[in-house]
Specification:
Elements lengths: L1 H7 L5 E5 L6 H9 L2 E6 L6 H6 L6 H8 L3 H21 L4 H11 L4 H8 L2
Length: 120
């Protein structure tokens, strides 16, 4: 697509959606030359187990690396993650306040201790 936009000399700005593992720096530069001004990365999950279950050939580290150094991109991706979280909570009649209450309950406690306490 980028080649055709450049070949025709078209001048317009556009936005792309992709996965973190589908682009590299040379492609990003080429997309920019062709008018791409924003890219939204799909963060499939921060859990390697979920990525494996979904058969996604990604790691959480690759997803983080894709947004490193770009505050606007990280903000957009965080908004996507938060939106999906809010949808999941609403489906179970929970609110963000419920989650914040749980975080407050855990304050000062090691994440490892918290996880161990839930096993049983």
């Amino acid at each position: 697509m980028c080649d055709e936009i450049l070949r025709r000399g078209l001048k317009f700005e556009w936005i792309a959606n992709t996965r973190a593992d589908c682009v590299d720096y040379p492609l990003l530069k080429h997309m920019h030359r062709a008018g791409c001004r924003r890219i939204y990365y799909g963060w499939e999950s921060g859990s390697q187990r979920m990525l494996d279950v979904l058969k996604k050939d990604l790691t959480p580290e690759a997803i983080i690396e894709a947004a490193k150094g770009d505050r606007a991109r990280l903000t957009a991706e965080a908004a996507d993650v938060l939106y999906h979280l809010l949808v999941m909570l609403a489906a179970r009649d929970l609110t963000l306040g419920d989650v914040l209450d749980e975080l407050e309950r855990r304050e000062g406690r090691s994440g490892l201790d918290e996880k161990a306490a839930r096993k049983g």
